[in-house]
Amino acid sequence: xxxxxxxxxxxxxxxxxxxxxxxxxxxxxxxxxxxxxxxxxxxxxxxxxxxxxxxxxxxxxxxxxxxxxxxxxxxxxxxxxxxxxxxxxxxxxxxxxxxxxxxxxxxxxxxxxxxxxxxxxxxxxxxxxxxxxxxxxxxxxxxxxxxxxxxxxxxxxxxxxxxxxxxxxxxxxxxxxxxxxxxxxxxxxxxxxxxxxxxxxxxxxxxxxxxxxxxxxxxxxxxxxxxxxxxxxxxxxxxxxxxxxxxxxxxxxxxxxxxxxxxxxxxxxxxxxxxxxxxxxxxxxxxxxxxxxxxxxxxxxxxxxxxxxxxxxxxxxxxxxxxxxxxxxxxxxxxxxxxxxxxxxxxxxxxxxxxxxxxxxxxxxxxxxx
Length: 370
Prior knowledge:
With 370 residues, this protein is of the alpha/beta class. The chain is 44% helix and 8% strand. Helix 1 crosses helix 2 and helix 1 runs antiparallel to helix 10.
């Protein structure tokens, strides 16, 4: 027999095409199925968001190297996947980020300082109001975002809301049980969820080829009863167009979509990681040539959208942001001890109140002893 037997689902028959709208040289590739219907102001805002995210990320890495953060998880090279996808959401939609979500946080007007306090160890999860920004607290356990997004999406459906949840995770998360449970639940409930897998090629040091024998990660969606799509994660216009369609499907009641954004983590998994032990210089150089910001900049310049004045203004804003981050993080003191008790119960119990008093007395005694 030349092909698979009748009734056999063959992995070789699964499409592996990657959606791309911008060539690496910035040339636009028109696509009737995936259109980036963005105006000039939108394109410039996307450019601004990517540049600011990279600067904030770079400053955070520098701060960790200088001993001001305990650890940090850089996103260098993944700006397009985050910014393009998040730009397709409505303001009222929710994002459930991984620990590498700085770019999306900035788009939700979250001060990066509030994120970096987690990496400094002065706060847990983030110092912003999730309800105000529609941006959940950072979750370090791998793939838990799938469960959170699925649960929120199901709740939104039961409430009759038109809200979409975006769950963000990496390729390593697809090897976790929470990934299966979250996607399976969302599929069964036909929940309004978009699952974004930023396939940056490595789960810490384990390459994708050693994580799965499937032809793509997007194909895994079929096992849960909804579509999967592969997109060039370094092409911000393609990321936006693919996410826009997935968000539309979800909002109209057609269920979830799994997006696999093919990108590359140019930095380490975290600043505690020695990337040279498992990755070659040649591989890094290959992906540096596909830089998402450089690609988008070429497109904007080719279309005469990006001016020198705007670039200079964004660069000035980026420098201000960098200085703000440094000024707020360097030497930042621990949070007040009483905050340990403020976010446990809406109405503190007597036991909790007594424990707070005991801690206060103990700390006061230490100060007197000094």
